[in-house]
Amino acid sequence: MTSQVSSPAEHEDEADEAGETLVGGQRRPPGDKEIRRLDRVIIRFAGDSGDGMQLTGDRFTSETASFGNDLSTLPNFPAEIRAPAGTLPGVSSFQLHFADHDILTPGDAPNVLVAMNPAALKANIGDVPRGGEIIVNTDEFAKRAMAKVGYDTSPLEDGSLDGYSVHPVPLTTLTVEALKEFGLSRKEAERSKNMFALGLLSWMYHRPTEGTEKFLRTKFAKKPEIAEANVAAFRAGWNFGETTEDFAVSYEVAPAAQAFPTGTYRNISGNLALSYGLVAASRQADLPLYLGSYPITPASDILHELSKHKNFGVRTFQAEDEIAGIGAALGAAFGGSLAVTTTSGPGVALKSETIGLAVSLELPLLIIDIQRGGPSTGLPTKTEQADLLQAMYGRNGEAPVPVVAPKTPADCFHAALEAARIALTYRTPVFLLSDGYLANGSEPWRIPDVDELPDLRVQFAQGPNHTAEDGTEVFWPYKRDPQTLARPWAVPGTPGLEHRIGGIEKQDGTGNISYDPANHDFMVRVRQAKVDGIEVPDLEVDDPDGARTLVLGWGSTYGPITAAVRRLRSAGLPIAQAHLRHLNPFPRNLGDVLERYDKVVVPEMNLGQLATLIRARFLVDAQSYNQVNGMPFKAEQLAKALKEAIND
Description:
This protein is of the alpha/beta class and 648 residues long. It has 20 helices and 28 strands. A 7-stranded mixed β-sheet has the order 15-14-16-17-19-18-26, sandwiched between helices. Strand 18, helix 14 and strand 19 form a beta-alpha-beta unit. Helix 11 packs parallel to helix 12. 49% of the residues are buried.
């Protein structure tokens, strides 16, 4: 769930004439409890995969966005639909970092951990720094539940948590007690304990409450008694924080008034931003949008979202498999639509032959790859950047495809527009490489004015474009634009523009089937030249101090890299940073940039795929720094590695 808000500067705290402080939409009598100001907080909700932690985190995030904080989130959940209850593999968590200033990552370590059961505590306690706050649902710490995760004694009693600020709260009991009047069974009442926890945390950090109550009544509109029970549990949690002696302090994180340019903002996830970008691209191109797709984690949300937008001329087709999905999309491209197929790494492997066909046909097609851990089925709900070489080379023959990659969840919107620009202008399939971290994570996004969006309109072929030797005016489907090398886009049914398509090599110009060696050599080279000639912006380098070490990244590593660079610079260490959006073709100035530095470090969530390309293309001894554990880099981890590279 997302919330649309105005400029964060409009949400400063105010005082009313009654002497009460209005904080986060809640009225507090002066002197009620101590309120401490913080500049940022990292909270992690963790529990069983059936405890509603993703919903809880999402609601807290939405209210935080409406309050005007900068934020970044990291949902983390099992691949199983319902892992065994109370086990470590079944733990689901949601981490939120919010601040009164510009931030870039979900945070390295949580200041506050909400643990709904022993498994959640054990799976996450290693990430909580000493002195951190832990809110524990004591009702779940029975012997059997603790034994499931290897606790011989209760960690709440054996002193192992003495270094933390522990708040034991019987969340289940309190929730059931609060919902007695609703006549629910105990099992039904227990399901609302996540709302009790959300209410408690909303009190602790002065989050608005009206949006969550409205959300619950909308979500359970067909079951009003369930809606009101969840609202009651939410309010009970808030009231518990207000009245209990265990929480003597609450915390205030002011809106990030200086972090954003003035505008209208909303919280947005990467997949939602990407969906909106595709719709915007179709409108700017004045073409219908067609999505041919097969559900696959973590790309399925794009299919779900686009299916809601028939009013914008969007057509979605859920195919029987990955191959059918891209086949339908390529057919739509032939028919004159802005065609898209969405998938993850395993699906890209299945689509590879049809991507090669799109290269051969030279038709615009967007292949959206939301990368996940592999190989094979791999880690469906975990993130990775290991599909770069597959996108570059994972087809038979010489089949070059442009590749672009967004750097943040909000940037997925603009990356979609850029991928569409390249596909439509140069008549080529284009890869867009997002990943699970971007897809599921969220951040504030300034809603752009329509006037800011690029004009993507195209001109379809209207008639003959070539004069034959006998003087006849004919249509050549592979007669190219001299600037872009793009062939004409002829919509089927246009009189006089009949032409052949198929996977066999085409004759230059006519498009007729050709087995001529010289023609094949020419067509291969011209398709490569078309991709090489794509106009992309020069690479921008952030180097205020004349550093000798450059850190080069791509995709979702932008946030952790930038956060690490800030830490090093604040410590007085010079380091330069550059981040690639265009991976094929590379920016034309990339070679010159690399030559300016003694050392180039490339952090990637793979075993060095971009570094391999950099070494091969530019003969630069790029140093890889790699991680493939299904999680994004931590800023402190990168800062340490980069510091060692600087001092080496």
